[in-house]
Amino acid sequence: MPWAIGWGAVAAALGVFLLVSDTPDEIGEAIAAREAAGKHAQPEQTMALALWWGALANVPLALLMAAGAKLWARALPAPKGGANWREGTRAAWLAIGVIAVLAGGLRWNLAGRSLWWDELWSAQHAVVGYYLGKPDDPVDGRYFAKPSPARAMWFYTKPTNHAVASVPAQLSHRIWRAATKPARPELFSDRALRFPTWLASIGAVLAVGWLGVRWGGPWAGVCAALLLAGHPWHIRMGVDMRAYSYLVLWAALGCAVLTRLLDKRHGASWGAWWAFGAVQFLLVWSFLHATPVALAFFAVAAFAIPRNWQPREARLTAFSRLVAVNVAAAMAYLFLFAPNVAQMPVWVPKELDRNHGHSLTAGRALETATDLFTGMPLKLAEMRETRGLADFASRPAALRWVAGVLFAGAALAGAWWLWKRRRDWAWSVFGLFLAAAGVSAALWWTQGYYYSRFVVYLLAPVSLLIGLAAGAFIAEEKKGRHWRVGAVTAAFAAYFALVMPAIGNLRERPYAPLRDLANLFAETRARAPEAVCAVYGHGGETMPTYDPRMRQAFSRAELEALMAEARGKGAPLLVAYGHGTFNRAQVPDGFALLDDEALFRETRVLDGIEPDFCFRVLAYRGSPGG
Q1: Fewer Cβ neighbours under 10 Å: the N or C end of the chain?
Q2: Is 375 left (phi over 0), alpha (psi -120 to 50) or beta?
Q3: How far apart are CA 249 and CA 202, in angstroms?
Q4: What is the pLDDT of residue 283?
């Protein structure tokens, strides 16, 4: 009865929301008025319209939950699962805590350095804000648009804004502003914006370590946490102000919660079931391409129920609970993501028309595997932009083979060990790989955008399986444990020797040197207030978040206009460009000028963690200082 009353109250609250909110007709009239004036609908109008329909769709689902409470809310006996969770030792928990601190330290420098393009787009529209008006207008005379919490949650004019990162980033930014009271509205801290994702990356290390201890014992947990803490790919994605850091955390928590449902001591309690529903919601809400992960977790639970609950009535109750918590997750998703779905028709056709060769190929699949096991690219072209960067091919061949065989073999051994010990647990891990294969196959079939980061959540099961293999190897026999510990230590030393250059790169460089470029522009204006500072081609669209006075050019004609402006003012002109390969293909005409040494000279090269993020700074010879 309490559950039925609770869900009835949810339905009533949704009804009140529908009554007090603007109706679709009222919102439609406001949108039509804007369109009649030649303007697009405001994102807030689209959000309000979608929230209304999302609430309406949730009313029958809430009533269904209330009506079905007699079935899914019945008492559930404990599952008849096999082995229970293992107990950890004080030394193991202390070691995992120390490893988590180490993980935070390895990610701290990168977290405090410049954001890159995708992060800056979210910062501009959903977290920090931006100036309206023309770049050559005085900044003090322009209006600064501050994003609302609604924009952090629902600004989705392109799929770059991930609410799971933007919402806490906006909160962190507001706390930073309240504490530091910066002089200008556009000022922000890179580290403050990334602080929540930095915490999520540490949380993932703790979650993987905890799960390793509970499944395989102390050594397994320590090894799994250590591998994830020092993995270059997790360092790189772990502080990116988007969904990827959270996905690794949700994957680990999903395995933990799912297997907890099947544990003798916890499977009958409501806490584990609602936690499972929460993880299901977080996966899909965080990132659309993680939907197959939620489906895989649901399938694993559904197939495990008949093996773990007897008699038939208990199985029916358990399955009803599974459906109920997933319906609750779907309701939350339907309401909170509806405004994003409403904005998708604006950008989906454009994205499908211009995937720029980023579909899944055999080469990209191999790159994904290399990212997963080494956290570095397979091979980099030899050019200025790649100097100082590490790739897999540049490492000693013997070390590559030793590390590759050891760690790929260890992952397989860990999978086999887990399969023999408890198949429900194994399926929770295997489901992540099946989900990654499913989304990869779908993207290959549709020739949609594919980046290896779309399956970054695989870092959780890979680290876990290798940790389980290491833990089982060490604990196999008490006799001779010292040499077994030594062998595992040597294997980890070989791995970290392989990836250390990549870790060093991530500690020493920013994602992209856009704040460094903004500082360089500011230094130039300090010497010559009338200086014209610009970015050519893709890479500069989000730079106004750092430097609202910077200028942009996307063609030879626009570049020539900047050159004429500098000559007319008698002021220096600096032009920077990154994403060299892409820009030379998309906006090639301006490079006829930029590559002419009689017109421009290179003054600086600002490096990032990837070749595309290397920016060259050129001075125009036809103006002072050139």
Answers
A1: N
A2: left
A3: 9
A4: 97
Residue type, 124: Q
Assigned token pair, 150: 């609604």
Nearest Cα to Cα of residue 118 among 622, 551, 520, 610: 610
CA distance 505 to 233: 12
The confidence score (pLDDT) of residue 396 equals 87
Instruction: Quote the crossing angle between the two packed helices 459-475 and 423-446, to the nearest 10°.
Output: 150
Cβ neighbours for 339, distance < 8 A, ≥ 6 positions apart: 46, 47, 50, 51, 54, 153, 154, 156
Q: Do residues 587 and 596 lie in contact, with contact meaning Cβ atoms separated by under 8 Å?
A: no
Distance, CA of 395 to chain centre: 28
Determine phi and psi for 369, rounding to 5 degrees: -60, -40
Q: Give me the pLDDT at residue 109, please.
A: 96
Cis-peptide, bond into residue 311, ω within 30° of zero: yes
d(CA 601, CA 626): 7
Residue whose pair of structure tokens reads 């998703």 in the numeric block? 333
Using a 10 angstrom Cβ sphere, with 0-12 exposed, 13-18 middle and 19 or more buried, the burial of residue 480 is: exposed
- Counting as low any pLDDT under 50, the low residues of the chain are none
471's tokens: 């833990």
How far is residue 196 from each of residues 118, 126, 127, 152, 206, measured CA to CA in Å?
A: 17, 15, 13, 14, 15
> How do residues 235-266 score in pLDDT, each as one tens digit?
999 999 999 999 999 999 999 999 888 888 88
Give the closest residue to 405 by CA, choosing from 373, 452, 430, 434.
Answer: 373
CA dist 342 and 345 (Å) reads 7
Q: How far is residue 181's CA from residue 169's CA, in Å, rounded to a whole number? A: 17
CA distance 460 to 257: 14
- Locus of tokens 């082995």: 83
Phi, psi of 141 (to 5 degrees): -95, 5
241 Cβ neighbours under 8 A, 6+ residues apart? 115, 119, 122, 123, 127, 165, 166, 169, 193, 194, 197
